[in-house]
Amino acid sequence: MAVFKPEKESLYAETLDSLTAKLTEQGLPSFRAGQIMDWLYRKGAKDFDSMSNLPLSVRKWLADSFCIMPAQMVLAKAAGDVTEKLLLELEDGSYIETVILRAPEGDEAEDGARQTLCVSSQVGCAYGCKFCASGLDGWKRNLLASEIIAQVMTAAAHIAEQRGGEQARTLSGIDNIVFMGMGEPLANFDNVVRAVEILHAQWGLGLGARRITISTSGIAPQILKLAEVPVQFRLAVSLHGATNEVRGAIMPVNKAYPLEVLVPAIKKFAQTRGRMVTLEYILIEDVNDALSHAAALADITRELHAHVNLIPYNPVPNLPWKRPNYRRQKAFAEVLSRAKVSFTIRRQKGDDIDAACGQLRLRMEKERTA
Ligand code: SF4
Prior knowledge:
The protein is of the alpha/beta class. Helix content is 35%, strand content 19%.
């Protein structure tokens, strides 16, 4: 496995405990860890010199040992006023994508438009789902926890700038964070779980656990392991096929973890956590959108007491798949409705900005090598 070692670790990878231990090792007072976290996540500090209540000795040690931001935003591309995709370049020249999804009109939170941030967990992806742009170039490496947090901090700063410069609070109105960008989060388990801890902790970004969603293509043993993580985030499973035949044809992961292995793992997770799991189902014309597929999906969903997100497919250049027309989408949804399954049809966003995960990054990689 390619493990990336940065020249200097980013402070965004530290938890309060790990930073406290490092300070103690240096003979520096442990209470400085809380002050440093405060600078990072309450005040949004971008350099060590601005950490004015820290003595020079601590600031020097920080500057010698760490960097803060391990990524640089190289492009921001918006589609109307609902979706904006950010392209970030990492220290080793890799590109990753982060997407800001804004709630459509009429679906707003009390304090303004609801914003969801979709973060990447790997550079590329090894799982090769047939309908996805992220897997087209294969897997390059796992993201560090700091590179996941960097996506959040970059997006928050970008939103704050759009709102007139002043960052009222560090998250700048980001209401939800979903691990649904490039990569399979559970194949980068430790870094993702560490990032979730930093997102949720009071000393970190303080985001409510239910506002964090981890999405997986269905790595059954990792789902069971995830059930033991204390933070009560939400889990979404990319099902996309309700029979082994359909799922196996579009998701290679189904060979290792077919439905008879995956479904019990999801059930165990839901029972352990006492939480409803979401099943993601991309509707692809003539692949998984028949009424018999809807009936099979209804059976699985009822067994799991889950919720279904139906997502009409977002076409990817060079891939043959199509989005079913509205009539087919409606007929599929009606089967779920009649079966009294809890579901929503997700509104399509960002068609004109390469919004399917991995598309913008692929285009940038191609332009660089052209
Ligand atoms: S859908 Fe997710 S798991 Fe599948 S190839 Fe794309 S990024 Fe990887």
